[in-house]
Amino acid sequence: MLRLRLFYGLLTIILLLWSVGAVALLLMHDSVSRFDTRLRTDYKAIDASQTIRTLLITNNTHYLPALAGPPPIPAMDRRLHDKLIKQIHENYEVIHSVENSDEHWQGVVSRLDQALETYGEGYETYFSEVAVEQPDRERLLQFIAMQTQRNIDLTENVMTIGEEKLFSGASRLGDDSGKNTWFVGTLVLLGTAIAALVYFQLVRHLVDPVASLQQSIEEIRKGNFELTMAQPGQRTEFSKVIAAFNDMAAELKLRRGVNVENLKRANMVNRAILEAIPSPVFVIGDDTGILQINPAAEKLSEQLGIIGRLPLKIQRVFDECRATRTHFLPEDPREALLFRIEEEEFYYLPRIFHFDSEDSSQSGWAVLLHNVSRIRWLDDMKTNLLSTVSHEIKTPLTGIRMVLHLLLEERSSALDEMQKLMVTSANDDCERLLTTLNILLDLSRAESGATHLARVPMTLQSSVARAASLYASAAAAKEIKLNVERGADDFPEILADPIRLDEVINNLVSNAIKHSPEAGSIVLRLSKPDAEHLRVSVIDQGPGVPEASQSRIFERFYRAPGQKQDGVGLGLFISREIMRAHEGRIGLRERSDELTEFYIDVPIA
Amino acid sequence: MFQSPNHRDSAQNDTLKVLVVDDEPTLRLGFAYALANRSMTVETAATGRHALERIAVVNFDIMILDLRMPELDGSGVIETLRGKGNHLPIVLCSAAFSPNAALRAIRHGVVDFLLKPVRPVDLRQVIDFVMSPECRPLPLAMRSARAGDFAVAIQILETQMNPSQQAIHWLEIFRSVRDLGADLDSTQLEEKVRTSLSVLAFNSPTN
User: Cβ contacts (< 8 Å) between B64 and chain A: which residues?
Assistant: First the structure.
């Protein structure tokens, strides 16, 4: 376990530190005490020698002048001498007691002993007062002086030897301390070595895994999920970390694998969808150029001789969309753009839409060119056909009708009953045929006319007022009251084609009159349902629209079942087309209070 | 200035000379039959060219002209005739008027349109309406327009009280034609004519 290793390693170092400190302390203590002992003994000998010399000189100074002086010799008190000699001997004993096996030292000490003995004998002679004569006295003086000198020399020797010994002891102590230094140094080196060992162990077991973990994380950050870390041999804290890390790497690898797989599949689906679309599709990044195009777009680009960009006409529309960030989703094939490819005319309806990724981090545009050439052709065909039909059928029919009318006028000759019946029947058929033709014409007008609006700023009130005045007489015929509720006076202007808008309101009013009961009332109400629209409601007291028909009344040719009123079911369809072209709405409100309310919402200018 | 129908050379004869131009034989027959009576003599022509030939020879009082015909169509006949300075009153007849054709006709003083199918009664009424207009604002305004005097026509219609739907539309169109001047190419006016076409015709279902 790593924690244990760390603990042992540090413990070793601490023990080593303690032992080195203890050894150093012990050694220091030892050398200090040894030096102290030596200093004490050696210095004692030197001190004693010095004392002896002083005592000798004191003794001589006191007594010898009497010898040198002229006779008679004064009687000298020997008590001082005895005291000094006693002290000298005491000091000698000190020197003698010094433990020293050195021969030279032994010799010097024994000679000092003899010399002191001799010196003492000399003074014994002095005090015995045998030398009273001048020559004897001189001889005695000389003798004592000589002995004194000898003693001094010997004490000098003792001092010298003592000093030498002192010095040699000091140098020995120096040697000892050198050994101690070496010993401590060795211990320190050992400690350093152990510390280094611990360091490397720690690096190997602590730092290396962390460093390699960091490296691996770096690799994974770069996207290399293949990597796994080696599992360390022993069970350490790191083995868990590394196992967890390897698990994580494996998981990431798996996830990425799934992501890549999903990405591939999504890409394949995208390609399949794009390729399956027969219309040219360009996918464009928000800031970049074209991201992807489908084979149809490739083919078109090739035919137009442009590569890597949108056709110029489309680009213009696209730029506008991009500037306003709005979709462009026209439905009318008339808004298609003409392209000439190999002498042939093609109409493409550009549908441009903006899309965001789910998290709104990415966005782009898709441009789909819907080939409406065939629709345009069919549309033209239909228009031509309708016009041809209206002429080719209507013209002969006109003749027939004219003849039938003339016959029914009976101007030249009267018809008999049967003839009249037949001609009337033929005339009815003729009228029905004409009605059908007119419906067809109306229908073509609704489908083509609603897209061609001449929109101008206008007030909705004016339109309502025109409708009210137009239908005043028709309403009066059924004794219906036509009430206009103008609402607020400050309604904003709208942008609309007055003629087409009138058509819608007229249609609603006409329907209301048709379905109103006799002597009922119709309300034309202006209101503002939201910030962007103005509303005209046409409210009548009629029976309303049957539930089942409500969703279908705006379909072409739809007529609610059981209607007695005439009509072919195009009025509301045409109205819806017109409102759609105005980007407005037309609708039927839920019936309440026995009232039927149709409304139109027109965008405010 | 234009000839006034009331001061014609043939007025003394007390019979109106009517030219019916239509490529449909049945219609020619029917129109002729419907109109023929003691006060009217009817001649027919099957083509525009034939009509022009007959007009050059006979002094007609009024012409019922089909718009759609092979070779020279109604518009062509009107323009050729007006180009020659002939201001014969013309009733233009068609199953469907294109805004462009209607506008061209109006600019040449042809303001009477008959929408096919035509009932015999419509035919007789339109001739009465043109030849002897009642003393009401719309017929009088139409007479001025026929004479190319749109300013007067507008004036008459503007002073009218409670104008009919038809009168309102005609006023709009006369104003537009007046304001447009010589500039022939106005899609906006065409648009206006187109939306009013159903109302403009003499026998319009709304009247």
Answer: none
In chain A, the percentage of residues whose pLDDT exceeds 90 is 7
Please report the pLDDT score of residue B82 as a whole number: 92
Pick the CATH number of A2-182 from 3.90.1150.10, 3.40.50.300, 2.40.50.140, 1.20.120.240: 1.20.120.240
- Residue A443, amino acid: L
Kindly determine whether residue A394 and residue B191, on different chains, have CB atoms separated by under 8 Å. Answer: no
Q: CA-CA distance, A25 to A180, in Å (whole number)?
A: 11
pTM over 0.95: no
Query: B60-86 as b/e, with b when 16 or more CB fall inside 10 Å?
Result: bbbbbbbbbbeebbbbebbebbbeeeb
Local confidence band at B194 (pLDDT 50, 70, 90 cut-offs) = low
Average pLDDT over every residue of A497-507:
86
Residue A281 near residue A368 (C-beta atoms within 8 A): yes
Beta bridge partners of residue A293, listed in sequence order:
A282
Size of interface A-B (CB pairs under 8 A): 67
DSSP characters for A384-410?
HHHHHHHHHHHHHHHHHHHHHHHHHHT
Write out chain A residues lying below 8 Å of B188, CB-based.
454
Which residues of chain A does B34 touch, with a Cβ-Cβ cutoff of 8 Å? Answer: 402, 405-406
A375 CA: distance to closest CA in chain B (Å): 24
Contact A433/B at CB under 8 A: no
Reply yes or no on whether the pLDDT at B166 is more than 80.
Answer: yes
Residues of A in contact with B192 (CB under 8 A): 499
DSSP SS3 for A236: coil
Whether ipTM tops 0.85, in short, is: no
User: Could B24 and A396 be called an inter-chain contact, meaning their C-beta atoms sit closer than 8 Å?
Assistant: yes
How confident is the prediction for chain A on average, in pLDDT?
83
Contact A289, A309 (CB under 8 A): yes
Quick check: B189 contacting A, CB < 8 Å? no
Q: Where are the domains of chain B?
A: 5-200
Using a CB–CB cutoff of 8 Å, tell me whether B167 touches chain A: no
Within 8 A of A399 by CB-CB distance, chain B residues are 24-27, 29-30
CATH of A277-371, one of 3.40.50.720, 3.30.160.70, 3.30.450.20, 1.10.10.10: 3.30.450.20
**Architecture in CATH for domain A456-603:** 2-Layer Sandwich (3.30)
Architecture of domain B5-200: 3-Layer(aba) Sandwich (3.40)
Indicate the pLDDT class of residue A61, thresholds 50, 70 and 90: confident
Across the interface, of B30, B96, B118, the residue whose CB is closest to A390 is: B96
| CB-closest option in B34, B68, B196 to A402 | B34
